[in-house]
Amino acid sequence: MRTIGAGAVSASLTGAAMVAESKPGPPEKILDATDTVKLKLNINGVNYAVLVEPRWTLLFVLREAIGLTGTKEGCGRGECGACTVLIDDIPRYACMTLAVEAEGRRITTIEGLMTGEELGPVQKAFLEEDAFQCGYCTPGQVMAVEGLLRKTPEPSMDEIRTGVSGNLCRCGAYHHIFRAARKAAIRKTR
Amino acid sequence: MLPQFSYVRPETLKDTVKHLNVPGAAAHAGGTDLIGCLRDGIMQVNKVVSLNALPDLHGIRETADGGLLIGAMTTITEVSESPLVRRKYPGLAQGASEVAGPQLRNQGTIGGNLCQKPRCWYYRGEFNCLRKGGDNCYALDGEHLFHAIFGHDRICVITHPSDTAPPLVALGAKVRIIGPEGKRTIPVANLHVSPADNVRAETVRKQGEVITHIELPRPPENLRSSYRKVRARRSWDFALAGVALALEMDGDRVNKSRVVLSGAAPVPWRSQPVENAISNRRLNAETIEKAARAVVEGADPLPGNMYKLDLFKGLIEEELYTVSRELR
Ligand SMILES: Cc1cc2nc3c(=O)[nH]c(=O)nc-3n(C[C@H](O)[C@H](O)[C@H](O)COP(=O)(O)OP(=O)(O)OC[C@H]3O[C@@H](n4cnc5c(N)ncnc54)[C@H](O)[C@@H]3O)c2cc1C
Ligand code: SF4
Ligand code: FES
Ligand code: FES
């Protein structure tokens, strides 16, 4: 990393990772501002039909309409990462995604990493490595790591840092989070 | 909760243009800037027109003449990781990789990146400033630590927030636009608007116009491109200062150059003085020193952002030394 003036800079590019092509979305739709329409969402492998307004975010629908409260709201403006979910296996912010835009996509939330009452490998690694204090950022951190490992099963430390760089932790558990990510990667590829 | 708006997701460009060609309609690409603007009441939008069902706006392909065509809906992540972009235009790949954080790069598109609204804290906050329709620029006499040192004419002192626009300008890219009056293609260098020309607009797009593609010309022989961004913290942050270089080299000689600054001006800022200092010269210590001094020629810094002068000098010096080291 090179340093200049006010901060550290590096034009680092993550390794030759696979490029996930974005695909055109679901079919044509026309909704009035005051309409509530039935929307089908595929969340953690389950099809939900919910009544939504065009202005509702995916975060709002997950928490308030469906009751999946594992996904957290921090800033509500794309700056903290607490609301991270996977859409077609790719980490995104649910607070910056309109629910209507998620139609026809595969949505994965923190609840979807469980098998019954059993934690998934990334969740287990966070627990074992003590990768949180208050825990508020944790669901988002876990989803960012899960998304990273689905795309890059054996990430370098730099790739891990970049992978969770869109997730703030006010408690500063970063080093433990990096360790948990590495442990989860080893466990998942074994 | 966001204010109410109607939502349409057309499947053809014709319908998209039709839906967008009314006051109060706004395009939705990745939504990473639009949703924030709606939440903060910066744009009065009563119809959101999603570009997500349009089939031809995604992906990157090589053109017959050896250039590239990038669909406006291609995500920033795809641009930064594309082997084609990395091989032909590393400066653009670096610019894209420096945008925001991973989630926003996965969601944000290159078209949206070029059309995003400025990040001035008065503009984003509850101030009805000049750009938002009011009478005053609050940043001029207020807090302007991150604001412009060039091209603001003391009218509006935003810096253009895009990290992909500077490399695109340096590389001579063009945007294809479709609108109610048909199609047009313009250089990215002419896309953005200076406050002196119109303080209420960021781009020259007219109502109903959509960017469909970005065209990159075939890279000349011995093109060396890069983008370097300086920011206050390593995870997401906008540029305090940045530079995109596109140099046509002949050994250690710079034949032609295009040098575009970010974090400098209300538009991606082409630095003619630096270009003049290095073009048709050997890239030695003397040239580099001249270029570093040249970068602040014509600057009009404000009391709170004088530090940017030294920052830009240091940045140009470091970047050009990096180039000259690669030559050895
Ligand atoms: C926390 C945070 C940090 C950020 N950091 C950076 C950064 O460091 N560098 C940087 O460059 N950007 C940054 N951004 C800004 C921005 O979100 C991204 O640049 C992104 O690429 C915008 O693309 P989008 O597709 O999400 O745009 P949208 O939000 O969908 O659209 C943005 C604007 O462009 C218009 N628009 C979109 N596509 C088109 C089109 N094809 N034709 C015509 N008009 C169109 C929309 O109407 C809207 O006004 C940041 C944003 C956030 C929230
Ligand atoms: S710099 Fe521009 S956007 Fe910021 S307060 Fe001044 S007029 Fe408004
Ligand atoms: S709540 Fe979505 S990024 Fe903070
Ligand atoms: S554990 Fe408290 S914010 Fe991260």
Give helix and strand order of chain B, one letter per element, not per position: EHEHEEEHHHHHHHHEEEEEEEHEHH
Main beta-sheet strand count, sense and barrel state of chain B: 5 strands, antiparallel
| Order of strands across the main sheet of chain A | 5-4-8-6-7
Q: Which architecture name of the largest domain in chain A does CATH use?
A: Roll
**End-to-end distance of chain A:** 32 Å
In short:
By secondary structure, chain A is α+β, with helices and mostly antiparallel strands.
Describe this structure in words.
The complex is a heterodimer of chains A (190) and B (328). Chain A is α+β, with helices and mostly antiparallel strands and 190 residues long. Chain A has 2 domains: 30-110, Beta-grasp domain (Ubiquitin-like (UB roll)); 114-190, [2Fe-2S]-binding domain (DNA polymerase, domain 1), CATH 1.10.150. Chain A has helices spanning 58-66, 121-128, 138-151, 157-163, 174-189, and strands spanning 2-4, 7-9, 29-31, 37-43, 46-52, 84-87, 90-93, 106-108. In chain A, the strands form 2 sheets. A 5-stranded mixed beta sheet of chain A has the order 5-4-8-6-7, sandwiched between helices. A two-stranded antiparallel sheet of chain A has the order 1-2. In chain A, a hairpin with a 2-residue loop joins strand 6 (84-87) and strand 7. Chain A starts with a strand and ends with a helix. Mean pLDDT of chain A is 89; it is low at 1-20. Chain B is an alpha+beta fold. Among the domains of chain B are: 55-115 and 160-216, Uridine Diphospho-n-acetylenolpyruvylglucosamine Reductase, domain 3 (2-Layer Sandwich); 223-326, CO dehydrogenase flavoprotein, C-terminal domain (Enolase-like, domain 1, 2-Layer Sandwich). Chain B contains 13 helices and 13 strands. Chain B has helices at 13-20, 34-39, 76-81, 83-88, 90-97, 102-107, 110-115, 121-124, 138-141, 165-170, 272-278, 285-294, 307-327; strands at 6-9, 25-28, 47-50, 60-62, 68-71, 174-179, 182-187, 210-216, 223-230, 241-250, 253-262, 269-270, 281-282. In chain B, the strands form 3 sheets. In chain B, strands 4-5-8-6-7 form a 5-stranded antiparallel beta sheet, covered by helices on one side. In chain B, strand 2, helix 2 and strand 3 (47-50) form a beta-alpha-beta unit. The longest helix of chain B has 21 residues, at 307-327. The mean pLDDT of chain B is 97. The chains are: A alpha+beta (190), B alpha+beta (328). The interface between A and B is large, with 61 and 69 residues. The structure holds flavin-adenine dinucleotide, iron/sulfur cluster and FE2/S2 (inorganic) cluster (2 copies). One FE2/S2 (inorganic) cluster (FES) is lined by residues 132-138, 169-171, 173 of chain A.
